[in-house]
Specification:
It is a single chain. The protein is an alpha+beta fold. The chain has a single domain (34-177), classed as Roll (2,3-Dihydroxybiphenyl 1,2-Dioxygenase, domain 1). It has three helices and twelve strands; from the N terminus they run E-E-H-E-E-E-H-E-E-E-E-H-E-E-E. The protein has helices at residues 15-26, 58-68, 126-135; strands at residues 5-6, 12-13, 38-39, 42-43, 46-54, 72-79, 84-91, 94-104, 116-123, 140-142, 149-153, 159-164. It has an eight-stranded mixed β-sheet with strand order 6-7-8-5-9-12-11-10, with helices on one face. It starts with a strand and ends in a 20-residue tail after the last strand.
C-alpha cells in the first residue's frame, strides 16, 4: 500500500503510514508474550474486531469520520425494534480494524466517557472462553445465552464483547439460563 490512499470523497488518508512508523518505534524492544486463552491444551485464536463509540448526531459524525478523517463506510444496520443504527467504518485498505458508530434514536446525553462502548473480539468457542474466564475469577456480565455473544469487563471497567467466530453455537447450560450481572 502507498503512503497515502484516496477514499471515495477525495480525502487523502495518511494514517496508515503514520501508524506504521509508530509501530516500528513501539516494537523496538522485546514484546511480552501473554499466555492467553487455552482450549484443549492449545492456545486459542482471538481476533480484534472493532471499537464501538456512541454518537449523538449520526450525520455529523459520519461527516467527521468519513469526509474529514477519510474512513469508509463498510456496512450499516438499522434496528427499528431496538431504535438504533450501527455503522461500521474503516480506513481504506484496512477493513479488518473497524470503528462501530452506534446511534441510539432516542436522545441521550453521553458524559463521563459513556460514549465509548466496548472492545470486541471474535473467539473460537464462546462457551469454552467464558468458562475459562469464569474459572479465572472474571465476572461474565452478559453470559452467552444465545451461543453468540458475551460481555466481560476489564479491571478498569472497560467493556469487552466476545463474539462466537462463525455461526452461533447451540444454546447450552449453564449459559442459557444465566442472568446478566451488573451492566456491560
Amino acid at each position: 500500500m502507498s503512503d497515502s490512499a484516496q477514499n471515495r470523497n477525495g480525502v487523502i488518508v495518511q494514517m496508515v503510514a503514520a501508524f506504521s512508523a509508530k509501530a516500528k518505534v513501539l516494537q523496538s524492544g522485546p514484546l511480552k508474550q501473554c499466555s492467553g486463552l487455552a482450549h484443549n491444551g492449545k492456545t486459542a485464536t482471538m481476533k480484534y474486531l472493532h471499537t464501538m463509540v456512541r454518537v449523538n448526531n449520526l450525520d455529523e459524525s459520519l461527516g467527521f469520520y468519513c469526509e474529514k478523517l477519510g474512513l469508509n463506510e463498510l456496512k450499516r444496520y438499522d434496528n427499528d425494534t431496538g431504535r438504533f443504527t450501527l455503522v461500521f467504518l474503516a480506513a481504506p485498505g484496512d477493513e479488518e480494524a473497524q470503528v462501530e458508530l452506534t446511534h441510539n434514536w432516542d436522545a441521550e446525553e453521553y458524559d463521563e466517557g459513556r460514549n465509548f462502548g466496548h472492545l470486541a473480539y471474535a473467539v473460537d468457542d464462546i462457551y469454552a472462553t467464558c468458562q475459562q474466564l469464569l474459572d479465572a475469577g472474571v465476572t461474565i456480565n452478559r453470559p452467552p445465552r444465545d451461543g453468540r455473544m458475551a460481555f466481560v469487563r476489564s479491571p478498569d471497567n472497560i467493556s469487552i464483547e466476545l463474539l462466537q467466530n462463525g455461526d452461533a453455537l447451540a444454546p447450552a447450560e449453564p449459559w442459557a439460563s444465566m442472568e446478566n450481572v451488573g451492566h456491560w
